[in-house]
Amino acid sequence: MAEKLHTTNRAAANAAAVNAASPRAVSAPAVLDEAHLGDIRGALGTIPQHDAGQRRSWASRLLTLLAIIGPGLIVMVGDNDAGGVATYAQAGQNYGLSLLWTLPLLIPVLVVNQEMVVRLGAVTGVGHARLIKERFGKFWGAFSVGDLFVLNFLTIVTEFIGISLALGYFGISDYVSVPLAALGLIVMTATGSFRRWERFMLIFVAANFLVIPLAIFSHPHVAPVIQGLFVPGVRGGFNSTSVLLIIAIVGTTVAPWQLFFQQSNVVDKRITPRWINYERTDTWIGSVVVVVAAAAFIITVAFAFGHTPLAGKFTNAGAVARNLDRFIGHDAGALFAILLLNASIIGAAAVTLATSYALADVFGAKHSLHRSFADAKGFYGSFAAMIAVAAGVVLIPGAPLGLITTGVQALAGVLLPSATVFLLLLCNDPEVLGPWVNRPWLNVVASLIVSVLLALSLVLMASTLFPSVNVTVVTTVLGAILAAAFTAAGLNAALRHIKQQPVKAVALAQQSPARETWRMPPLALLGRPEWSRGRKAGMYALRGYLILAVVLLIVKAVQLGVAK
């Protein structure tokens, strides 16, 4: 993969240098909905469409950032949803602080993945699903959106499970809480005002910070927290169950829906290449906020139940709230329930919107929060339908809600490598990004991320097929293979660098004044990229492997569900 990316990047460099100076490159952008053109009307400020003023003072830069901020912060905090809260609580209750080290490692994963979709959204003016369909064909577009739809729908169900458990703590019936929450989500989204929707979402983002006083209620000690953050290990050792939880932590913190949501939300907010650095800052802030909140949940539950009979006996997030009430106090239990409710609402809003954006992208429907319900019936109708059906599933007596919650986060972790591969291919496509294509070091980092995620899913597959396998040995062997592969790729790149002068076109194009105004031309004008036989074989192999991994993940989740 590293060699292919290097070759792709050289081709991208040459095309980027040409496109940066091409009249076609600065023509009308490829936006598919005219509502995506105009002033940026953010929750905290407005930027006129043709603003060309320089931001020289810190005050002017801060005001600009406040107007831009939103997509990155919302996508990150939205991923600390009901499933995320449950996953972090499970990690804290069953493994104490021994899985905290996974969280700092996720910050670069979050930033690398989401920075790429920021560029794609700002430069192309087109959603992620549309790009995949147009650049790789209907087959791969259908697979990507199909994966997304199934995973997202199950995720939305978990959000309503969270709403049910949170309001159940306060004695409110599911038959009251779930329908009211569903109605509120639809009303909040279908206002016809992007600014109003973003203000609603930022209120929920602000409420997320209540996790800090919650953690303080558990009286944490600094030394074990620091050790948990920086010393890798797993209480009880690596096995199939702990690996499943690690994959779930990855899947709940870095989920495929985030790619589709942030790219489409950047487009919908009308962010252009001129404002990319501000949106990158928004994404950095969001990645830190989400990891701090995740750590706070783990710390709270670990210290609350670490020396009680409940240690190692996680059941669900509702039980965590009740037991916090029992062991720490009513305020802690109520605060956890409020945070669970808040996480469920922001998660349901973001995940459902990501799906509606993707479906509208694929079917060519109007899709903008700037439009009224009457002006975008398909867009808002799909949103309302998914919310209504997911809420209905939660109200079905005897529905396997625990099984859904157990499996959905790990499913996100298993499917993430496929989504990241498509992201990498798009970000190395010179027709799509011109002077904004990936730099070589970014391709290396992204390839490493994909490889590690695949290795984790391989460990899960091996431990599910062969329960007696030594997971530590399997993990060590796969790590050694990865290290050898990347060392060989690095040496190969170094030799190539010595034998021939490296292409400088990317660097030159990225310094060009035209870079800020370069937009992808209309998709109809672009030639579809040709895939080599090797790349096709690799993509089909990846697809086949992921299907097998998903089947085995379902088997593992059912095993755990039956064991309970």
CATH class, please? Answer: Mainly Alpha
- Structural class call reads mainly alpha
| Lateral strand order in the biggest sheet | 1-2
CATH level 3 topology: Amino acid/polyamine transporter I
- Could you tell me how far the N terminus lies from the C terminus, measured between alpha carbons in angstroms? 41 Å
Topology order in helix (H) and strand (E) letters: HEEHHHHHHHHHHHHHHHHHHHHHH
**How would a crystallographer describe the biggest sheet?**
2 strands, antiparallel
Please report which band the strand proportion falls in: under 5%, 5-15%, 15-25%, 25-35%, 35-45% or over 45%. under 5%
Entry keywords:
disordered N terminus; Amino acid/polyamine transporter I; 2 strands; two-stranded antiparallel ribbon; single chain
Question: How would you characterize the overall build of this protein?
Answer:
This protein has 564 residues and is mostly helical. It has one domain: Amino acid/polyamine transporter I (Up-down Bundle), CATH 1.20.1740. The protein has 23 helices and 2 strands. Helix 3 (71-78) packs antiparallel against helix 13, helix 5 runs parallel beside helix 12 and helix 13 crosses helix 16. The radius of gyration is 23 Å and the shape is globular.
